[in-house]
């Protein structure tokens, strides 16, 4: 189905999934537009982004392309980390990078979805998210775990809401977030479940300004509650991180490392830099 949904100033565009035999390397720019796929960058003027495009085109060529469906009731929900500011240590753990000389336009990350263990809570449930952010754009894997160790998970995207790409503990997920510097703030989401071999894409006019920050990590929910336990999550790995500004590539792990702490100063989770393109967040509790 090709269509456009308009909610206020937000226009979400869905495109039909490409056929199984679709070859992005032989496709024309019009073919790519028809299926809502990213246009192939000019390798002479944007060599880094062009190399990323080719890597993804090879990687996902054999994946099952799903038609995106959105839960409109969650589209306007405020994300835990939908901010151009650094994630707050009281709620988040990860890395955050700012560029004041050139806006970010592309962020690609793969990450693992943890298997949560319940931490005692008067609410009877723990809320936990993994997040990837490009300016005000945000993708979360929203998760819960209850006292019987039942885990739920759902992908949520800023300005769109919950989407129907299946995801669960143990899966490896990848996401490309692209934000144009045009007046419409046109965003392109390209998401994949690497473990299940499924992918989907869609775009939305957000009205957001050019992105000056990128970030990734984990965060805890129930932030409006007096008691906010952190589910036991082990380690979450963030790999293959590629961040590009209009002036070239940047390393996310060269930015600010955010350690999650309790209100009394106790460490809850720690980011560990592995390479320029890889880090992990580690649960600090017993």
From TrEMBL:
Coiled coil, from the record: none
Entry-linked Gene3D superfamilies: Peptidase G1
UniProt-listed InterPro entries: ConA-like_dom_sf, Peptidase_G1, Peptidase_G1_sf
SUPFAM superfamilies: Concanavalin A-like lectins/glucanases (SSF49899)
UniProt-annotated stretches for the region Disordered: 1-27
Pfam families the UniProt entry points to: Peptidase_A4
Domain of life: Bacteria
UniProt-recorded name of the protein: G1 family glutamic endopeptidase
Organism: Plantactinospora solaniradicis
């Amino acid at each position: 189905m090709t269509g456009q949904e308009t909610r206020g100033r937000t226009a979400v565009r869905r495109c039909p999934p490409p056929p199984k035999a679709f070859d992005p390397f032989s496709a024309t720019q019009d073919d790519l537009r028809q299926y809502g796929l990213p246009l192939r960058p000019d390798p002479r003027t944007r060599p880094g982004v062009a190399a990323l495009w080719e890597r993804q085109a090879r990687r996902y060529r054999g994946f099952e392309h799903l038609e995106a469906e959105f839960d409109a009731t969650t589209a306007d929900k405020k994300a835990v980390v939908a901010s151009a500011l650094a994630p707050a240590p009281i709620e988040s753990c990860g890395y955050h990078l700012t560029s004041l000389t050139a806006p970010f336009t592309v962020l690609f990350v793969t990450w693992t979805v943890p298997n949560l263990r319940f931490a005692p809570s008067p609410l009877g449930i723990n809320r936990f998210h993994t997040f990837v952010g490009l300016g005000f754009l945000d993708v979360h894997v929203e998760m819960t775990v209850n006292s019987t160790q039942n885990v739920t998970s759902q992908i949520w995207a800023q300005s769109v809401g919950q989407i129907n790409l299946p995801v669960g503990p143990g899966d490896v997920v990848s996401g490309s977030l692209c934000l144009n510097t045009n007046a419409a703030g046109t965003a392109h989401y390209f998401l994949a479940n690497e473990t299940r071999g499924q992918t989907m894409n869609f775009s939305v006019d957000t009205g957001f300004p050019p992105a000056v920050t990128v970030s990734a990590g984990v965060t805890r929910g129930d932030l409006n509650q007096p008691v906010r336990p952190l589910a036991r999550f082990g380690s979450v790995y963030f790999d293959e991180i590629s961040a590009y500004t209009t002036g070239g590539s940047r390393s996310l792990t060269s930015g600010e490392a955010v350690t999650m702490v309790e209100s009394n100063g106790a460490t809850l989770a720690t980011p560990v830099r592995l390479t320029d393109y890889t880090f992990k967040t580690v649960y600090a509790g017993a």
